[in-house]
Amino acid sequence: MTGTQTPPAHTAKQEWATGLTAFAAVMLFLVGLLDIFRGIMAIAEDDIFLTTRDYVFKYDLTGWGWIHLALGIVAMIVSMGLLRTATWARVTGVAIAGLVIIANFLSMPYYPVWSVVMITISCFIIWALCVVQRGNLYDLSEERPVYEGRRPYDRRPPA
Q1: pTM score, two decimals?
Q2: Tell me, what DSSP letter sits at residue 108?
């Protein structure tokens, strides 16, 4: 005797969780890409950045460029894992976003407004990755189930 398996119920909570994970993946990808650009700018041209003489955390800009470049590359790789809703990617994404916050805080005297923007975006990434429970996610690379008798763009399930 074989039974047919019915697909799990498609709920609004799962849509919300999947949307937040997709948001975090895209934002982490953009943060990584922008960090790569910032790293290249710091490595190639130190004249682009503002320098403050009396700042507690004074570092070599070329060194910071390499740090931002490495963080950007890792962030972009992790964002690909987030699109697969991998648990390792969620944990690593929170860690990378935290490191991006620290790196932007320490390099704040060189690009103050940009650092604050990157810190804010990274905080949203951490929030989006921490608020979602694992059981509520659909794999973003797979096709999601559609209710019988319902068009994909309808919001309500059939009665």
Answers
A1: 0.69
A2: T
